[in-house]
Design brief:
single chain, about 400 residues, alpha/beta, Rossmann fold, 2 domains, 6-stranded parallel beta sheet, 16 strands, about 40% helix, elongated
Length: about 400
């Protein structure tokens, strides 16, 4: 089976969809499938590198409370058509298939292999979907199978494009993320428990709420520290706030490469995700859980998909620093509870291991190919029967 995985986002930059595509490609190749990735890339000098076709140059575009690095070039039609004609993929799997410009162009031009679309996003509304629905409906009908990464993502896209979506969640690398990973050196302090935030420093990730909660904690106790791992547009503002308000024992670690994330989780005693919303799925929670760490997170739809309150961690209302501080204090006061939640988190994360997720995706491919085969055979049978009559 020849498969093309299509992503709208800069493949050279870390991100949820890009990571999903990378892990899925690896698993599919391990099953003997021939896999190519089609994505825009920044600074690429070659158009084809190790199974990656670089198509378009990404530019930053504000989207859903973050910044998406996508290609807006609609002048790739000739190159894409030539690629599709040459490779003759059996399956073209488009991630965010209605995103400009690469996925929609591939979807419009592909008439060979079956089109499968995975929808990742979650938001209250999408003006592009709303106003572009008359045009996008025609493209959507070209999808022969639809996947959503969570029930919230399914509910969101179904408001604009109803269909029979298979819910197949994001996966976690349960081998790379595990409790046995050596902690990153110099992070843990024996006399203080470590609370970790790891994520992009932008408004929707909610670090303001965590800083408020941590300040409340430090008014009554000195047995904890806060590590902030990640970078983003608000980093300088957060650093300035910590300095001006004299918030003690807060360390900004900067960007953490993918290969080092697990060692940061295992260096922590508690992982905290104070996100405000717009998350379709809690991949970062799964990674912390796979490392055996208890989680304090906001009770948003995407996070409730993977974490049960009181089992693998504690859920609190978004933006509520008092309840977040209380949840953190509860775990700080009870090391045994932290250990039990961490163990349950590790067990829960194993159900999302990439080999299991890839099996489900391959099942969708096979069902779509069978359906295509039946639809092609039926007219031939009808014509043959008519000739016999």
């Amino acid at each position: 089976m020849k498969v093309a995985l299509v992503s709208p986002y800069d493949y050279r930059k870390p991100g949820g969809v890009g990571d999903h595509v990378r892990h899925l490609a690896e698993e599919l190749r391990g099953r003997g499938l021939q896999v190519s990735v089609l994505a825009p890339t920044a600074g690429a000098r070659e158009e084809h590198m190790d199974g990656l076709y670089s198509l378009g140059r990404p530019i930053p575009v504000p989207a859903n409370g973050s910044v998406a690095r996508i290609s807006l070039s609609f002048h790739l039609s000739h190159k894409i058509r030539s690629l599709l004609d040459r490779e003759r993929f059996d399956v073209v799997h488009l991630h965010e298939p209605l995103m400009p410009a690469l996925p929609v162009t591939v979807l419009r031009l592909n008439s060979g292999g079956v089109n499968v679309g995975t929808f990742h996003a979650y938001a209250r509304q999408n003006l592009g979907y709303y106003y572009g629905r008359p045009l996008l409906k025609r493209l959507f009908r070209r999808l022969e199978a639809q996947i959503a990464v969570s029930e919230p993502a399914k509910a969101f896209v179904s408001r604009y494009f109803p269909a029979d979506y298979a819910v197949i969640p994001n996966g976690v690398d349960s081998r790379g993320f595990n409790p046995g990973v050596a902690p990153a050196p110099g992070l843990a302090q024996g006399q203080r428990a470590t609370i970790l935030f790891l994520g992009r420093l932008e408004e929707r990730k909610g670090l303001d709420t965590l800083l408020d909660a941590y300040q409340l904690l430090r008014q009554v106790r000195a047995d904890c520290q806060l590590l902030v791992a990640g970078d983003g547009p608000l980093r300088r503002g957060y650093e300035r706030r910590v300095e001006e308000e004299g918030i003690p024992d807060v360390r900004f670690l900067g960007f953490v490469p993918e290969a080092e994330k697990a060692s940061h989780f295992t260096a922590a005693d508690i992982y905290c995700a104070p996100n405000t919303g717009k998350e379709s799925f809690g991949v970062i929670l799964l990674e912390a859980m796979a490392c055996g760490r208890p989680v304090v997170a906001t009770a948003i739809d995407g996070f409730r998909q993977v974490l049960s309150d009181g089992r693998q961690g504690l859920l609190v209302p978004p933006g509520d620093e008092a309840q977040m501080a209380a949840a953190l204090a509860r775990l700080l006061d009870h090391p045994e509870l932290r250990r039990e939640m961490g163990q349950r988190g590790r067990s829960a994360a194993e159900a999302y291991a990439w080999p299991l997720i890839a099996d489900r995706v391959v099942s969708v491919y096979e069902a779509a190919l069978r359906a295509r085969s039946r639809s092609e055979v039926t007219p031939l049978v009808q014509q043959t029967a008519a000739g016999l009559r």
